[in-house]
């Protein structure tokens, strides 16, 4: 028999093995479905292999190096602190390898069939999976598409993989560049730019909007920009890149900065201006799946497309492009396929930026709450009034709690400060449960710990914060 003559009959087919796809596959298997997963690259997708995990590993290592160098005021003098960047990369790659191996074992233990290859929809109930050697057809009952996203490219700065690079190459450099230009001051550019600055690069960030982290509360961004100045990171806002010229081992970028043409030269240019959905080479439009004008798949609250039994999750369904959002949507899609009454609810979605200090927020900002018609009250508690933050020598920032004035129900929380990425979990739980400021205030928090800042902010909503002035 010639391979590909007959279609392989499968129950649930998942296309993409990232944090959306592999989670969806496991959840569907837990619910009794027979699952086949197709992945053209490494299991774990962008997040695990060339995104959130390796970037956070480098960020953590860079933070450790900086803290060692700056621990003198705590009485810890570390002389001749140096960075072995190749060894750091080796450690980072080991973290990734351990996690990708773990994903493979999880899929195997859930009896999920993994097929290596690139999928293309040849019908509303079948895909063609191609490898370098051959191709096979898989006919499915239900399908979950989770193909993720790729770094967006600027026409003026086409990627060459060496001097003009995306975040993928930035995570795999073999030496710390002496100078780095970051085009785009969103969370990816800010995270990687800050990490390389701590490792010794002279970093310049060029952002086209009027502030770094566009869309983020300006009060939060001010804390970040203050620390960037301390780290001697140069940043320009209202900076529109016009072109880049590569000359041997350097790149010169020409930009219009607030109406004035300026040039910047560096060893590498990291372009981080967003991501686009991986939907163009799947054949989705040919089988009638509706996409918007940016290539994102249109879905409903059950993650269903307009084509019966085809679902889409994660980055391909539109912003925000978050790994935990993809995982959440994957579980919902799997549960809907299994006949459960499941639907997405994004109100308590956490957002995190691993900047210095970290930023995390969930729910509604004060402006968003007012726009939705709430009579808003809020209270901001400063980290410098928290004993644990001071004892960690990391007291920059604040927590802001937003609540409905009449009911005191928590509507949103914004944090900028140490370990904000972990602290936000309490706020997410509070919003998910419909908690009030009194619920948090009456919950005993251990002392001295960072979570006390959330309790104190909640007490401030009630008018009786202890360690800062009440309004």
UniProtKB/TrEMBL annotation:
The active site is at 447 (proton acceptor). Residues 349-458 form the Pyridine nucleotide-disulphide oxidoreductase dimerisation domain. Gene3D superfamilies: 3.30.390.30, FAD/NAD(P)-binding domain. One of its GO terms (biological process) is 2-oxoglutarate metabolic process. Keywords: Disulfide bond, FAD, Flavoprotein, NAD, Nucleotide-binding, Oxidoreductase, Redox-active center. Its EC number is 1.8.1.4. Its cofactor is FAD. Residues 11-330 form the FAD/NAD(P)-binding domain. Disulfide bonds join 47-52. NAD(+) binds at residues 184-191, 207, 274. NCBIfam families: lipoamide_DH. The active site is a redox-active disulfide bond. This is Dihydrolipoyl dehydrogenase. It comes from Novibacillus thermophilus.
